[in-house]
């Protein structure tokens, strides 16, 4: 259908509306994010912190791209959004093994955008004729823009998939995938293709960044630091996405030097799996690292380094985030909003089997200071600590990894 340029008056209304859309309130963006990251078809994206962060950036990119085009040329067709933001996220989607069905998120975002734009349009004019023309042009424009962008991104995803099927990287990723799926590939063949011994104790990790403009060299330095912390100079590293590495090392990394290395690598995060031997350990450690990464994403945790043995209980308790939040609020009461040092003192006290001397030493604080904080914490709890120490300890662990609102 030929594109019909709207009347001068409607062009001006579209420009006014686009200027409003260029400065969206937070609740609009929250609604877009919720729509594009919920639902069964988008569960894999929502549970991956890199893909989820990329999807949020794409939402903003698409909204601002369309709005800016209509400020410049109101009512004219808007070309597909081929900027780096959607293209980078599309590459990561392919490298996670997902297909074009992941672009269903664009449709979910479109439905929200159409409704929000209709609200804007209705605020610009009370004239039925103007409103009819305004909505006819702009809603067709939004739909065409989303269609064209999806078509462009789909083509780029297919090209990326073709690229990944060639070369040594593709062979390494294919071999790792076969091992993780328990496919019948011999140990000898897998070791030959990976250049990595499988007859050993393995610790898997996921190294990633969700920064908008990441320095990917920092990921490689983090992989080296992880291997060094385990006393292993030749890690197995697989490119799982533009901003994600799947890593295996022999042995167990020492978290103290690893944490120190991360202090020099802003925006890089590491989720560490369990340590276990042989092929089963290779698989189990990776899935434990995934569980750790997904829990950090689910709780929007600020922690940049987490090990599976630290978070296993919390991961189980927070599989349903809403119920976990209710459990924390019900169990901790006013302590949930208390100064962080009060809740942390009680958490460490419980972790040290309610031994005040050991807790004070671990916190590098005076024993009397610790006792005062414990007394304050007990007053803030809905029920005395002595009546339900296990529940309080679990709630405090959730609070620790969730971070403060």
TrEMBL record:
Domain PucR C-terminal helix-turn-helix, chain residue ranges per copy: 343-396
Signal peptide: none
One Pfam family per UniProt: GGDEF_2
Residue ranges constituting the CdaR GGDEF-like domain according to the UniProt record: 187-294
InterPro entries linked to this entry: CdaR-like_regulators (IPR051448), CdaR_GGDEF (IPR041522), PucR_C-HTH_dom (IPR025736), PucR_C-HTH_sf (IPR042070)
Family label: Belongs to the CdaR family.
Protein name: PucR family transcriptional regulator
Source organism: Streptomyces similanensis
Lineage per the UniProt record: Bacteria, Bacillati, Actinomycetota, Actinomycetes, Kitasatosporales
């Amino acid at each position: 259908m030929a594109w019909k340029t709207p009347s001068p008056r409607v062009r001006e209304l579209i420009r006014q509306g686009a200027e409003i859309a260029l400065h969206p309130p937070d609740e609009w963006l929250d609604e877009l994010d919720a729509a594009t990251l919920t639902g069964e078809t988008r569960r894999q994206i929502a549970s991956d912190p890199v893909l989820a962060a990329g999807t949020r950036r794409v939402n903003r990119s698409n909204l601002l791209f369309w709005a800016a085009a209509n400020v410049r040329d109101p009512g004219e067709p808007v070309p597909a959004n081929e900027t780096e933001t959607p293209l980078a996220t599309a590459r990561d989607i392919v490298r996670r093994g997902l297909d074009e069905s992941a672009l269903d998120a664009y449709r979910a975002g479109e439905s929200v955008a159409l409704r929000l734009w209709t609200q804007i349009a209705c605020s610009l004019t009370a004239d039925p004729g103007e409103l009819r023309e305004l909505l006819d042009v702009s809603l067709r424009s939004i739909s065409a823009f989303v269609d064209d962008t999806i078509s462009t991104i789909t083509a780029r995803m297919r090209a990326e998939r073709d690229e990944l099927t060639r070369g040594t990287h593709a062979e390494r990723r294919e071999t790792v995938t076969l091992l993780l799926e328990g496919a019948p590939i011999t140990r000898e063949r897998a070791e030959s293709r990976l250049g990595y011994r499988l007859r050993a104790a393995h610790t898997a990790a996921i190294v990633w960044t969700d920064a908008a403009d990441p320095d990917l060299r920092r990921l490689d330095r983090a992989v080296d630091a992880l291997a060094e912390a385990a006393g292993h100079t030749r890690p197995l590293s697989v490119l799982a996405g533009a901003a994600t590495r799947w890593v295996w090392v022999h042995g167990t990394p020492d978290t103290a030097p690893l944490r120190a290395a991360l202090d020099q690598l802003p925006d890089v995060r590491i989720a560490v799996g369990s340590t276990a031997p042989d092929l089963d350990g290779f698989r189990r450690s990776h899935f434990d690292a995934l569980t750790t990464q997904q829990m950090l994403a689910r709780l929007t945790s600020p922690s940049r380094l987490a090990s599976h043995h630290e978070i296993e209980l919390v991961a189980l308790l927070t599989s349903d985030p809403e119920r976990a939040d209710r459990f924390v609020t019900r169990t901790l009461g006013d302590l949930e909003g208390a100064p962080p040092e009060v809740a942390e003192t009680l958490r460490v006290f419980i972790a040290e089997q309610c031994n005040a001397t050991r807790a004070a030493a671990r916190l590098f604080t005076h024993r009397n200071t610790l006792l005062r904080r414990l007394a304050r914490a007990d007053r803030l709890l809905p029920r005395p600590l002595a009546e339900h120490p296990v529940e309080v300890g679990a709630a405090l662990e959730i609070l620790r990894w969730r971070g403060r609102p």
